[in-house]
DNA sequence: TTTATTAAGATTGAATACAAAGAACAAACA
DNA sequence: TGTTTGTTCTTTGTATTCAATCTTAATAAA
């Protein structure tokens, strides 16, 4: 009689995590701008919690590279310089290469199907005006590859690197003239996996990433 | 008369950072063992602070991969499985390769001198019984290379990967029979930089890392 | 003996309180 | 006018408090 009392205890999340996710989203979407101060009391009242979970969330953002805090002066949304971007891209380039090598070896048939579906979803999204959806489906496409690499540590690190450029990348994707190229590149990537051609894939991934650099750089220049 | 009153206001560190460093050290040195619970009150009284900075430090350890917390149950020192180690090594291998490519391009003469000095310091350290000093000088040698890569983001990520194996690596270095090999490899690395031979360096770094795998794997097996 | 049940204690989650540092602004002085 | 000093207000750092949940150990029931 009481078996359905097993309530949803598993969807409990500490407030610090809720706050963390909220702030993270806000930063990535640009609602909180680079350089903007993160004042504890302000955020606390805005989110309807006390300062304690805010502070813990800020510590987490800090380690994610999304916030910077100066002792006794408080935290602010991390700014990225052009050099920072260059550095992150350099790293991500290397990690993307590793990811395709691993994924090429380890991708299951199911994952390959998933990849083709993700490709389709992205293509569909570009036909809408929903930039958010476009960005998400693009990310999802790459997520499949990273998951196929079957290396959670790698996935984490790539995600954190990705996250650091995300804010700027958003602007890049707003420009519809790049859709055709992105779609073409995704198709080529699928082709590469079909043939399990590692060297080819490494090259493509590199190009794919490099294409973003100038656009993102542009956005960064404007910021300052 | 009063010019030397300028006191050291710059060495202030929030307690959370002090606690973070303390716990981090303790974990890396093995004083806090994998799986050991990190109880807030216990740590707080032991370190003579309140729970607040402890909690913030734990959030930081968490994001460093050194602690894992389960909501409402508390944090514990992160355990590493063999698979985790494999994964981290795979990543580090790729990043090391990137680091030597960058360092090869960008290493200054001063840094090359530094590298040779670090080599010497390590060689000296192996002649003592001070395992701590041996580990430190070995790390310092690699630090010079990473610094020469002139990519702080890369440096950060490598450090965090490095940190995750550090605990296990400690055991490896305790065995004096590996010193000779390590010294030889360091010499070869210097040689590679002298000739700016990127491909050669990539290979050497890979070997250098691979040599540690089995030893560390052994230690991990014992743990469980 | 084994399995449920439950009460007590321990531990984490979150809010609040208080102290200390920093920022902003105004009054005093050159 | 411009600089300096003092005062007040804001904000962060840390400690403390209270509530919720988990663990445990003891007790009761099978």
Describe this structure in words.
Two copies of one chain form a homodimer. The first copy, chain A, is mainly α and 224 residues long. Chain A is built from nine helices and three strands. Chain A has a three-stranded antiparallel sheet. In chain A, α1 (15-29) crosses α3 (51-64), α7 packs across α9 and α8 (179-195) runs antiparallel to α9. Chain A is globular. The A-B interface holds A 12-14, 16-17, 52, 55-56, 59-60, 62-64, 71-72, 84, 87-88, 90-91, 94-95, 97-98, 102, 151-154, 157, 161, 164 and B 12-14, 16-17, 52, 55-56, 59-60, 62-64, 71-72, 84, 87-88, 90-91, 94-95, 97-98, 102, 151-154, 157, 161, 164. Chain A binds a DNA duplex (30 and 30 nucleotides) through residues 14-16, 39-42, 49-53, 55, 71-74.
User: What spatial order of strands do you see in the largest sheet of chain A?
Assistant: 1-3-2
Helix content of chain A: over 70%
Largest interface: A-B, 32 and 32 residues
What is the subunit organization of this protein?
A: homodimer
Radius of gyration of chain A: 20 Å
* Largest sheet features of chain A: 3 strands, antiparallel
Question: What secondary-structure arrangement, pairings included, does this model have?
Answer:
Two copies of one chain form a homodimer.
Chain A: H1 15-29, E1 37-38, H2 40-47, H3 51-64, E2 67-70, E3 74-77, H4 82-106, H5 109-126, H6 131-148, H7 152-173, H8 179-195, H9 198-223
Antiparallel strand pairs in A: 1-3, 2-3
Helix pairs in contact in A: 1-3, 2-3, 4-6, 4-7, 4-9, 5-6, 5-8, 6-7, 7-9, 8-9
Chain A binds a DNA duplex (30 and 30 nucleotides) through residues 14-16, 39-42, 49-53, 55, 71-74.
């Amino acid at each position: 009689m009481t078996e359905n009392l097993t309530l949803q205890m598993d969807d409990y999340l500490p407030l610090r995590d809720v706050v963390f996710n909220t702030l993270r989203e806000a930063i990535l979407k640009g609602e909180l701008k680079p350089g903007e101060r993160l004042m504890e009391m302000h955020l606390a009242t805005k989110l309807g919690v006390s300062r304690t979970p805010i502070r813990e969330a800020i510590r987490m953002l800090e380690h994610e590279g999304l916030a910077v805090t100066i002792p006794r002066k408080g935290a602010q949304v991390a700014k990225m310089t052009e050099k920072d971007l260059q550095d992150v891209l350099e790293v991500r380039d290397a990690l993307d290469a590793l990811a395709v090598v691993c994924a090429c070896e380890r991708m299951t048939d199911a994952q390959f199907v998933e990849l083709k579906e993700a490709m389709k979803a992205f293509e569909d999204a570009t036909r809408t005006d929903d930039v958010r959806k476009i960005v998400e489906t693009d990310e999802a496409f790459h997520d499949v590859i990273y998951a196929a690499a079957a290396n959670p540590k790698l996935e984490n690190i790539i995600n954190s690197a990705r996250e650091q450029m995300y804010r700027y990348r958003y602007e890049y994707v707003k420009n519809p003239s790049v859709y055709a190229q992105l779609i073409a590149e995704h198709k080529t990537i699928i082709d590469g996996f079909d043939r399990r051609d590692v060297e080819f894939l490494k090259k493509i991934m590199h190009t794919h990433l490099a294409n973003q650099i100038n656009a993102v750089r542009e956005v960064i220049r404007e910021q300052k």
